[in-house]
Amino acid sequence: MKKQKWIALLLAGGKGTRLNLLTKTLVKPAVPFGGKYRIIDFALSNCRNSGIESVGILTQYRPYELHAHLGRCSYWDNYNRYGGLTILPPYSRNDSGVEWYEGTAHAVFQNIEFIEQYEPDHVLVVSGDQIYKMDYSLMLEQHLETHADCTISVVEVPWAEATRFGLMKIDSKTFQITSFEEKPKNPTSNLASMGIYIFNWPILKEYLLREERKEFSHRDFGKDIIPSMLYDGLQLYAYCFDKYWKDVGTVHSYWKANLDLLTGEKNIFLQDPEWKIHTAYYNEPPLYFDERAKMHQSIVSEGCEIYGTVENSVLFSGVKVGKGSRIINAVILPQTIIGENVWIENAVVGSQAKIMDGVIIVSKNADAHLMVVGHKEIVDPAIQDFTGTNKVISVVS
């Protein structure tokens, strides 16, 4: 195997429980986004566009649909001869059975043999569940210039959301990290880790092995590896990112990130148009827009049939909206069928759902209550109560 300057490991195995019904049967990186993409397409495209030749994708929770999507990503197949994409699920090392990934650092530790075959100088570790465009090669340039042992990409987040992230303080002149806290209850900084790291591989390998020898460890980068490196006096630097970035870790943030696409200033696909986000190709028929249909400031994908009204919404491929129906401030995932005289407002509706005639799924205040329908669910008042307290519909506060 050819020696490589750097390789990437893409973490794509988390359950994503805060996405509620959307990840009940689907891993978060495989959740559809933006009308035609999957969330993982962003990190994966960033890797390719940054010139990274080899990417290991670490999967675990409900991986089937993610694996199927990656298998259709033919744009990567002819990109290079030296690695391409490798799917890295948990496996059995001995007779004791499969050794499941127990944390982000443990997942990388389990794949040391995969990494070593490339003899990399540096390893890029990225999360597969964020929406952004980034040239990782610029981050590597700073990493080399500062002689860092580890570089962490950071972004300022709203103080109200700061408890969701690993937070740090840095020297404003050198960008060296001086302190780090993983999801503190009382934040003293809103400078958040994006979960994007560049490590010098020999150093990271040493810390991974050391963590495995500990009697107790979360086996996590934010809770264990990064604090240990800081405590030991290693050189950790922040790479400050100031473009669009959204961690879609909650249903509200996922819903807002999709609706951001309806505003030109926030539409990530209109920013840096030469930096393409690639995805798998699905052969869908053209959009059909009936003469009775109405649409305002929305994204409607191929294969849709629209007979009703769509306002300020994102509709994925194959969605059908029946006569007299109104879809407002909603995200409707692929192949969902919406009957006639349906009213959906401030909601996310999962893939392949069926919303029968006359159903109303409405929240008048999305910030307080967002309606969520699960994948492949049937919402029919004739056969069930759908008050928002059962498995079919969830009200997310």
UniProtKB/TrEMBL annotation:
GO terms for molecular function: ATP binding; glucose-1-phosphate adenylyltransferase activity. Its EC number is 2.7.7.27. Residues 291-378 form the Glucose-1-phosphate adenylyltransferase/Bifunctional protein GlmU-like C-terminal hexapeptide domain. Residues 8-262 form the Nucleotidyl transferase domain. Alpha-D-glucose 1-phosphate binds at residues 101, 166, 182-183, 193. Pfam families: Hexapep_GlmU, NTP_transferase. Pathway: Glycan biosynthesis; glycogen biosynthesis. It catalyses: alpha-D-glucose 1-phosphate + ATP + H(+) = ADP-alpha-D-glucose + diphosphate. InterPro entries: ADP-Glc_PPase (IPR011831), ADP_Glu_pyroP_CS (IPR005836), GlgC_bac (IPR023049), GlmU/GlgC-like_hexapep (IPR056818), NTP_transferase_dom (IPR005835), Nucleotide-diphossugar_trans (IPR029044), Trimer_LpxA-like_sf (IPR011004). The record marks 60, 100 as: Could play a key role in the communication between the regulatory and the substrate sites. One of its GO terms (biological process) is glycogen biosynthetic process. It is an enzyme of class 2 (transferase). Involved in the biosynthesis of ADP-glucose, a building block required for the elongation reactions to produce glycogen. Catalyzes the reaction between ATP and alpha-D-glucose 1-phosphate (G1P) to produce pyrophosphate and ADP-Glc. HAMAP family: GlgC. This is Glucose-1-phosphate adenylyltransferase. It comes from Neobacillus cucumis. The lineage of its organism: Bacteria, Bacillati, Bacillota, Bacilli, Bacillales. The gene is glgC.
